[in-house]
């Protein structure tokens, strides 16, 4: 079931004013994060009978991490950079979990030395390396096994963020994780399993069907290891509405399903690592129109920013919803929005904008609070980096000013 929010993408009058003030002050493309909206959303997520982690890759901005920390979230980090960014916000390392297909011995040592004690293991090599590093430092740590289930191809041919239904580098099959295939020393305490093979799902029925499809195979592995009160970490994958979508996932239904899974499979805890669902709707990418032109029957709106700031639309062929910063009554016109890179790949989508859109208008791309700037390709063509600002109440804080190419070129 999905909940339909017809006005989900509508820009609140207060937000319009705040973004307008940012545009005037910065005079450059920017990301803005609505911390009040984020806080009230996070407060509703806490009803779940699940331990919630934030997948830091979705948005590593300090103020965003601080909001999640204040709401009791743990942090799923995938690199020393993410680890250090979370620690720098005053988060205790016992609230940090490490997942990721690469964990070199040096990385593992750094994580252990900085106090991380929970790891999601993705290969036998990682088991051996973590054991060696834990032994060297005379520590014992908790681990989950990342399980990759052979997964049927979807009917609509869509692929998920982790690579679709083909084998991926994330985790191993249940058979490879059986006690006959791998043993653990007393340094590693096996707490449970991790499985996450679905992406950006807006329909709670579909998400829950994925979980139910996975659970019997995960439960068989947990039985093989005879783990008391096991943990099942179901990753992320809860969607947010991009262009053409107005539904949002029914969080109540998700909570009920988690409680049922816990009971049905006698689990100690369910965990989730939320990325886009936690933060995506609370970010905007704002850029100015540089040119509007017709070419062979197509209206091109070319913006000053583009994929160097917001690559996700080009990567996924799924646009961030867009509207002009200043509301217009003009009839909508189909347009292609392009950025400033010299490649046809720099397309932010085939969308519709009011027919009077013109040079120097500002465009607001919404749902851009997750997988925005840090998922982009900021250096190509040596343009300036976008600014990042936070909005709380009437307060606008520039957390990262726009920076010219000279700030990063060797
Ligand atoms: C291990 C892991 N957990 C959680 C997430 C967050 O996923 P989402 O943004 O779909 O919630 C990701 C995203 O790639 C991931 O790799």
TrEMBL record:
Listed CDD domains: PLPDE_III_ODC_DapDC_like (cd06810)
Orn/DAP/Arg decarboxylase 2 N-terminal domain ranges (all copies): 48-279
Gene3D superfamilies (UniProt xref): Alanine racemase, Lyase, Ornithine Decarboxylase, Chain A, domain 1
Span of domain Orn/DAP/Arg decarboxylase 2 C-terminal: 31-369
Cofactor annotation: pyridoxal 5'-phosphate
A Pfam cross-reference name: Orn_DAP_Arg_deC
Chain coiled-coil ranges: none
Protein keywords: Lyase, Pyridoxal phosphate
Residue spans crossing the bilayer: none
SUPFAM superfamilies (alphabetical): Alanine racemase C-terminal domain-like, PLP-binding barrel
InterPro entries assigned: Ala_racemase/Decarboxylase_C, De-COase2_C, De-COase2_N, De-COase2_pyr-phos_BS, Orn/DAP/Arg_de-COase, Orn_de-COase, PLP-binding_barrel
Family the UniProt entry places it in: Belongs to the Orn/Lys/Arg decarboxylase class-II family.
Protein name: Type III PLP-dependent enzyme
Organism: Ferrimonas pelagia
């Amino acid at each position: 079931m999905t909940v339909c929010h017809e006005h989900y993408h509508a820009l609140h009058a207060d937000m319009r004013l705040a973004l307008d003030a940012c545009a005037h002050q910065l005079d450059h493309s920017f990301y803005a994060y609505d911390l009040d909206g984020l806080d009230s959303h996070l407060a509703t997520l806490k009803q779940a009978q699940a331990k919630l982690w934030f997948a830091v890759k979705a948005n590593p901005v300090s103020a965003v991490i601080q909001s999640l920390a204040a709401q009791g979230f743990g942090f799923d980090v995938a690199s020393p950079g993410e680890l250090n960014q979370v620690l720098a916000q005053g988060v205790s390392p016992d609230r940090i979990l490490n997942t990721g297909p690469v964990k070199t011995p040096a990385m593992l040592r750094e994580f252990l030395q900085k106090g991380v004690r929970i790891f999601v293991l993705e290969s036998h090599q990682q088991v051996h390396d973590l054991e060696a590093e834990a032994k060297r430092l005379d520590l014992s740590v908790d681990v989950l096994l990342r399980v990759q289930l052979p997964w049927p191809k979807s009917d609509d041919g869509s692929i998920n963020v982790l690579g679709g239904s083909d084998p991926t580098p994330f985790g191993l099959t249940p058979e490879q994780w059986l006690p006959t295939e791998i043993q653990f020393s007393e340094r590693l305490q096996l707490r449970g399993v991790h499985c996450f093979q679905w992406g950006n799902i807006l329909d709670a029925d579909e998400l829950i069907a994925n979980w139910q499809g996975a659970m019997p195979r995960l439960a068989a592995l947990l039985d093989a290891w005879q783990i008391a009160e096991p943990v099942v970490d179901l990753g992320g994958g809860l969607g947010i509405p991009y262009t053409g979508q107005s539904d949002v996932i029914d969080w109540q239904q998700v909570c009920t399903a988690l409680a049922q899974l816990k009971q049905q499979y006698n689990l100690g805890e369910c965990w989730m690592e939320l990325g886009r669902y936690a933060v995506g709707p609370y970010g905007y990418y704002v850029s100015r129109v540089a040119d509007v032109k017709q070419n062979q029957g197509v209206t091109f709106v070319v913006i000053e920013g583009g994929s160097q700031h917001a690559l996700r639309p080009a990567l996924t062929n799924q646009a961030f919803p867009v509207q002009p910063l200043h509301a217009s009554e003009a009839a909508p016109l189909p347009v292609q929005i392009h950025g400033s890179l010299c490649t046809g790949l720099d397309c932010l989508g085939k969308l519709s904008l009011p027919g009077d859109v013109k040079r120097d208008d500002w465009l607001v791309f919404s749902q851009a609070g997750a997988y925005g700037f840090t998922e982009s390709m900021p250096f190509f063509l040596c343009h300036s980096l976008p600014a990042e600002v936070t909005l709380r109440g009437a307060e606008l804080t520039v957390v990262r000013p726009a920076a010219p190419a000279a700030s990063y070129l060797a």
